[in-house]
């Protein structure tokens, strides 16, 4: 339980160069990865919102071709059994039927405790920039009491590869985030990753530049070939 601390980073590795040169068998279909940012206040005070998110994902998995669910940031606020119980119940809907499997990545900050902790810059310097097969980094938990909620940065790795880095964290908003989640649509044929921010709880979308955007010119064929 101590492993879940303050921020989570997800690394999506595109592929090895060997796979990259393989021929494409069929037109690759766009697919969606759903991202659940910091659910800590839902686990503490609004479990119905967390459940609303996961049930919506399951209900829309087929129609939207949602293939995977990722959690980023903190799952609980105070790491108590009661909050983990709430979180486990909300997450359980994802694995109950044919829904996508939830995953929560390791937290680089937890690899070093206190003063030696790795922050985003250190993770970039020590690891991300050095590996040409890292395509994307998802970040949560940038919270200082203000509703920062989004951020992004495209970096260039040592091998010249683009690394798409994005932050989403709505916990400072109403009701611990009001149910906003992210939908990343990977379209290998169009070479795009489209990012949307939607709340099934309020049925609203955030459409500002930080929360709705498209990366273009992204070579996703290695991912498509791996399917
Ligand atoms: C799982 O998938 C099968 C076949 O697509 C479908 O008949 C069934 O209703 C699904 N179950 C759930 C819980 O979604
Ligand atoms: C999510 O909550 C909203 C508002 O209460 C409701 O209209 C919607 O049906 C809920 N969706 C799911 C999947 O529970
Ligand atoms: C959500 O809002 C859209 C309009 O933005 C509307 O067409 C749709 O019916 C609403 N869905 C629900 C479940 O209320």
From TrEMBL:
<dbReference type="InterPro" id="IPR051918">
    <property type="entry name" value="STPP_CPPED1"/>
</dbReference>
<protein>
    <recommendedName>
        <fullName>Calcineurin-like phosphoesterase domain-containing protein</fullName>
    </recommendedName>
</protein>
<dbReference type="InterPro" id="IPR029052">
    <property type="entry name" value="Metallo-depent_PP-like"/>
</dbReference>
<keyword id="KW-0732">Signal</keyword>
<feature type="signal peptide">
    <location>
        <begin position="1"/>
        <end position="21"/>
    </location>
</feature>
